[in-house]
Write a structure and sequence with these properties.
With about 120 residues, the chain is mainly beta. Helices cover about 10% and strands about 45% of the residues. The chain is built from 1 helix and 6 strands; from the N terminus they run ββββββα.
Length: about 120
């Protein structure tokens, strides 16, 4: 069942979809703890197909993190797919950490006060 009620976060992140023969690249345009909306041209995925999504991020210190999710295609078009993450993954620390990292990245930087 598709869930559209959870809060979504707008993004623009490169993602790698799939494994083995059926792979493509896309852009994660928005996400929640329950699902992803990904722009991907001519992806060839079918409704209800289970696919892997790899997302690589770096923090401000240059530390690299790779988040790996699995989800089922619940909506699709020629240039997009909407995935609902598999229930066994939610709410995992990885999914929640990923969402927290995105939320923090969207926060405006706090002005620094000069001392002295």
């Amino acid at each position: 069942m598709e869930h559209r009620c959870s809060p979504r976060i707008s993004t623009d992140l490169k993602v790698h979809l799939g494994r083995n023969k059926q792979q493509c690249k896309g852009r994660l345009r928005n996400c929640s703890t329950l699902g992803f909306y990904i722009e991907a041209n001519d992806h060839g995925y079918a409704l209800h197909q289970l696919i892997a999504v790899d997302i690589a991020l770096c923090d401000i210190d240059g530390n690299a993190y790779t988040f790996v999710f699995e989800g089922r295609v619940v909506r699709k078009g020629q240039h997009f797919i909407a995935l609902e993450l598999e229930a066994h993954q939610l709410p995992t620390p990885g999914a929640l950490n990923f969402i927290e990292i995105l939320k923090q990245a969207q926060q405006p930087a706090q002005p620094q006060r000069r001392l002295g």
